[in-house]
Write a structure and sequence with these properties.
This protein is α/β, with parallel strands linked by helices. It is about 30% helix and about 25% strand. The strands form 4 sheets. The protein has a 6-stranded parallel beta sheet, sandwiched between helices. A 6-stranded parallel beta sheet has the order 13-12-11-14-15-16, with helices on both faces. The chain has a 5-stranded antiparallel beta sheet with strand order 17-18-21-19-20, with helices on one face.
């Protein structure tokens, strides 16, 4: 694959190294000659000095013959402009990294569609979502690269006093977009049908659209614990996304922001959050706010060193779990040794997202669940799949498989019985371990065909 990467910062350089090592032809563009010199000395890549938002520079990089262009400079506007120009010059696929929520969320305009961008990635959003998933349920199933936060999937036991206990699934009134994907009963794991009666201590895999998942979860599992408390240091966009991801999910949230204007803005946008204009690493503030009793301390400042110091201090003063976000990925291994429980690097997250976009394999194992008895696959459909056309109630996958989610044109949702699969949809399919060959036959006949 011929790949052009714009921006030789940490994301661009790491992506270039990753893809060059994998055997792809990579050209790295940047205006900084020193960065390019380092890249040439350490990686097997071609380099070009220049402004990637100029058509003549992209033409010199032969972007018209490239399979992929990745715009990963530090400026959102440059990235968006670059991929738009590259598409006009003939590149097959584009990825743009953005930081601002305005572009990523498409407030006022669908920027991805308007500028013909194949994939928008936002490391801050993905990092906030990853932190939230880790905190909400440490055993949460990792499908974030597929669902982008729009679908939840968790494994948990059915409690004896739950409304769904001792009832067949057909009698449980679940909201549209929620389904029980698999059940573990003792040593037996199976895909349920409408007649399956849930028993106390069954361990279920529940999958559902994020907006209705937690209401549905209450029918199967009654939590006896009270709210957990989280203290967030820093009130930037990542903190806002993290707060939104934790809303109404058994969390009491406090955000500490020293800038008065920023604190007021957060308080106005997040009325369910307690916003405090103070520095939580100030020992007086720490003691006054009883932060030693917090379940989690999360450091989200733009300053890596401040985040590390804040987490080490919080841990030393009694906080059970501390999470630090650092931009420099070379800090990650160090943090485990100094007491940071969960370090996150948005730049590393960005590279992993890019790797996911590049994976064009029609059938990909996403996760193994229920101690390896259940597998989760991402399935890319061609235009002639036998699954296309009929409503899902008439689609016969057999007893071993269930369609858990559908992704189409940037949208992801858990389908209902009357949903219809369309050409080139991507599916999240859950089934018994060891049945991959049968899944291939079901989806595409003899074998899966690449898009």
């Amino acid at each position: 694959m011929n790949i052009v990467i714009c921006g030789a910062g940490e994301v661009g350089s790491h992506a270039a190294d990753t893809f060059a090592t994998a055997g792809h032809d990579v050209t790295l563009i940047d205006q900084d000659a020193e960065r390019l010199s380092v890249a040439m000395d350490t990686m097997d890549v071609g380099t070009l000095q220049g402004n990637c938002a100029q058509a003549d520079v992209l033409t010199e990089a032969q972007v018209g013959a490239a399979d992929l262009l990745i715009a990963a400079t530090n400026l959102d506007e440059i990235n968006i402009l670059t991929v738009s120009i590259a598409k006009a010059l003939g590149v097959k696929k584009t990825i743009a990294r953005v930081h601002r929520g305005t572009y990523f969320e498409g407030r006022g305009l669908d920027y991805r569609k308007h500028y013909d961008i194949d994939q928008l990635i936002c490391p801050e959003y993905s990092t906030a979502t990853a932190i939230a998933r880790t905190l909400r349920n440490p055993a949460a199933l990792a499908i974030e690269h597929f669902a982008r936060g729009r679908v939840e999937m968790q494994s948990f036991p059915v409690t004896k006093n739950a409304a769904a206990c001792d009832k067949p699934l057909s009698q449980i009134k679940l909201p549209r977009g929620v389904r029980v994907a698999a059940i573990t009963r003792g040593d037996y794991v199976f895909i349920p049908d409408a007649k399956t009666v849930l028993q106390a201590d069954d361990r279920i895999i529940l999958v559902g659209n994020s907006d209705v998942f937690y209401e549905a979860r209450k029918q199967f599992h009654r939590d006896e614990i009270g709210k957990r408390t989280i203290a967030i240091m820093g009130g930037g966009i990542m903190a806002i996304w993290l707060c939104r991801a934790l809303r109404d999910r058994n969390w009491s949230i406090r955000v500490f922001e020293t800038d008065r204007k920023q604190a007021e803005e957060i308080a106005e946008r997040l009325d369910w959050v307690t916003v405090i204009q103070a520095d939580p690493t100030d020992r007086n503030v720490f003691q006054e706010e009883n932060l030693a009793l917090a379940d989690v301390f999360v450091a989200l400042l733009d300053d890596d060193e401040a985040n590390i110091i804040g987490c080490v201090l919080a841990k030393s003063l009694g906080v059970l779990e501390v999470v630090a976000v650092v931009q420099k990925s070379n800090f990650l291994d160090l943090l485990y040794h100094i007491g940071v429980d969960r370090p996150f690097s948005p730049r590393m997250v960005a590279v992993k997202e890019i790797e996911g976009v590049l994976d064009d394999s029609p059938l990909r194992l996403m996760a193994s669940l229920a101690e390896g008895y259940v597998d989760v696959y991402r399935v890319k459909l061609g235009a002639d799949s036998p699954l296309i056309g009929p409503p899902l109630r008439d689609v016969k996958l057999g007893a071993n498989w269930v369609i858990a989610a559908i992704r189409r044109d940037g949208l992801v949702w858990v389908p209902a019985a009357d949903d219809v699969i369309e050409p080139h949809d991507t599916l999240l399919v859950i089934g018994k371990h060891g049945s991959e060959k049968s899944l291939q036959k079901i989806v595409q006949g003899k074998q899966l065909v690449k898009n």
